[in-house]
Records
---
Amino acid sequence: MTRIVVSLAFAAALLAGTGGSAWAAPPSCPAELPCQGMIYLNGALVRTILTPSATPKAGVDNFYKVAGVGGVAAVGPGTGDYHGGHWKVFLVSGSTAGLTSEAAIELAAAKGLVTITREASQDFRCPIQP
């Protein structure tokens, strides 16, 4: 499997900054990789690099902060209409276990299992590196 290196430190900082157990480390994080600095892209864990840039209210691509799961990027290089990592932040709460892709999050929302809240003040730019 090709690993995608992700430059989403701001996301990691956001996740770490929320404190408590609401933002647990991804349960399937490989032992040789630090879970801090990991997010999901299409259900797979990807590594992050700490180089963020805040861009409040300027996000384009969806990025979900999922309680109990961590960060979930909707797109990346080669996975859709990717805009270079201009992330549009959404908070996801409720029955979030196993939500590691945008499709899973949207399905859970349609079933009323989770609440998705737009948080424009947390938008940031941090490109994913293939």
---
Amino acid sequence: MEKEFGEIYNSHHQKVYRLCMGYFKGNTSLADEVSQEVFIKIWEKLRSFRGESEISTWIYRITVNTCLMHIRSANKKKEVHLEFVPDSVEENPEGEKEEQLKMLYSCIYKLNELNRISILMVLEGVPYERIAEVTGLSEDTLRVRIHRIKKSLTQCVKKING
């Protein structure tokens, strides 16, 4: 089981982390913390995975649920963990790209839960069929929704850039 878990971790940890970054608006320490929680849950529940869906779909669902539980818990405690505090960006050729990603994640965070889940999965390259399965939307509805989300995000980023 350890070998299987290691393979799962190696192939999915970056995707889980980026999905968490989307939920926590670029807060790297919170994304790290919740990503660790996700993999603890995966370890604990790996034997109960029934194989009714792709393992990546199962992992996305655990990630989404863990992020939402953390947000709800923080809201109940009236703690504000979701403030966007950009990390200091080193001066390098990637600095501009990092800033654009932070702006994008800032805009993604403003979306409602379903749209946020959908677009984050699209950005990870998850097939529409799998996204539809996770979100409960039909593929046709999902395609229209993604098109509208992309337009909305483009406008949001343009607004931030002035």
---
Amino acid sequence: MALPFMKNRATPPSMSAGKGFPSERVGELSAKGFPEGEIIDVLRKEGYGPEEIDRAMTQVLKLGVTGGGQNMSQGPSELPQLEPLEPMAQQMPQMPETSIPEQYYYPQQQQQQYSSEEYVDFLVRERVGEVDHKINEFMVKHAELEKRLAEVNNQMTALVQTRTSEEQMILSKLDSFKDVMNDVTIRMGSLEKAFKETLPALIESVRALSDLVQRMKREG
């Protein structure tokens, strides 16, 4: 919506991002008939941040209601001149030229509310774009992680197969060693039995030999 009191005033070029609020640039675009949404898009492309755009829009809308104010970025300046107001309906009393009629005030408030909603929508779309970018990065990393997990799984499968063959060899050797141990156990049992059977006779033989040696010593 064009602001009527800004048509007779030449505006300087817009300020650079980070050096102030582009109030005069907003007034220039509004005087050319740009709607609120297009003004926000233009200022954003020129490098202004969301806070600067919001402050500038609020300031210009406030100037449109109060009819005056100072330039926030360049210092004090002359007050803009109001154009002659259109005659009001006959049932409405005439207002002074320096006052803004009530019929103009309420649409301006509605316009300010609409611009705020549009600006919020702009911020939401910007944040959604950032979220989409983060999601895409996450999907790429997730795909890479799945690929690495598949490679690790293949390596583990090959390792398990290798260890399985080795374990089978070890188990077969253990089985053969078990058979040997069983054979040794059987033989040890046989030797123990034979030793138990021959031990008493061996003891008696040793004792008889010992007695014989003692008699031979006495007789000699």
---
Amino acid sequence: MAQRYDLYRRLEPDPRARTFAAGFAATLHDPLWFLARQWQLGEHQGENATTPVLVNLTAAHTPIRPEPASPDRDPASVPAESIIEGEPDEWWTTGRRIRVGAVVAAQQDLDPATVDPKYLLASPPPPYSANTDRQLPPPYERLAGGFDGYALWRDRAELGMGDTAFTGLGIPTPSTNYWQSDELVYETGFPLGNSSSDRILQLPRHRGGRVDWFSADAEGTQTSAVVPPEPEEPSITCYPTSLQYPGAPRARWWEIEDAAVDIGGYPPDTSHFATTLLIDLIASHSDDWFMFPVPARVGHVVTLLRPTVIDSFGQPHDLAPPKSWSLFRTTGLDDHSLVMWLRALTPIEGPAIEDVLLGLDEYSNILWAIERKVSGHTLAPPERTREQEALNPTLALPDRGGAPGGRQRFAYVPGRDLAPYWHPYQVEDLPGPDGVPRRRFVQRRLADLARTQPELMPAPTTELLRAQVAGTETIHQIAPSTVPSIGMVFERRYVLARDVTGQPLLWREHRRAPSLHPPGTTMRFDVLAEDTHTQPIR
């Protein structure tokens, strides 16, 4: 009679044991059992046990060329954030405006008493005027009254100076402004490849801030998605290593996992999609993931050509990306290509100099733009002098005095409790560049109807709520699809970084974030208010 030894091939608890905790733990102290179990699972058969030891490849680099209008702003030497968010007046720091103004005024023999005050640097006494670009921050307020070099250079043709008056002062070519005021985004494109290529690396609807591989799409008439690489790219040999990260599984041979590691306790990072695949990465092939370095140049599109892996048995294996999906693929480029921007990794960021809240009033179909900070100062309600109040008094002033049975007087007030720096936008259908009507929020201006004579509220002063066409300021418009129903918060702040040569770069960065709470106001219309006005109301 044949004997069965099934008990030797699987692990079973002792039915006579009375300690349930030890039975559930199933602790083992026999290394021979580990070897038998590995033999049973086929881990000693040598299948799929090879290891990559060498990688041969060719990394082709296609340059991202500067825009023809700004040849001195090369993406290979200047951070992309500085190029995209640059403004025509970004070179004109306060010190340069003072120095250039002093030099030009001395050369042209200008007298501060005879020129227009707009060409002079003003001191910033509160309340702040509309000329916020000419207010001197501390400690430059001591130099108030001097000539503004930027204002002189901007209106040099009107002043009859010409470019010769500014020769030798190092004034660069003005940067191109890529800001789309109606969409509140940046849009630009960079030529890709040599001068004969028509490929464009387009940045559609860039919101500002970090620029990465996913910020751009390749466009052009070429049918192939492969970017023509630079000629004579050398072959590269590199050595792969195991992928290591915090909480990674141990090598499966004779190592015990750390019981304190909880893979499910690592939440995915919303800004990096690859972290959502961490659990799947660990569950499939655990530690059988390898990485190898690829020499790359910033400001280029890197394309891997003919990557070949040599395993520990000397067998070559050609690498190819999966056809079903790709993690770092750029629209219009090959699966082997990756856009490498020169980024400002650790710039110095200043506090917010402009803060604007956009809120949508769906009941009245009006978009409200609230200025909360301009030129680095939190806006406060403007103060009225006694003379201003006497010339245009309030229609109805509340009075709690008088006899209990006395007569009361009421006045009709069209509107009251208007908040300053609140700017409404009304929906209108306006013709677009192609003549087709398009819907836009058009900026309007409130009037204080609570006074004897209607008085306009302060106009917007922040650059976020202003628009220019061919150097002429126009009425600001916003596309309805730009602002979500919950509203948005826009901020501008100074950012300081350096290029590859160490030269400092200063620009104003835009930031946008969802609004956590909608704006609220106590604005009222058609009010019958108690009045103590002694003059007849007209």
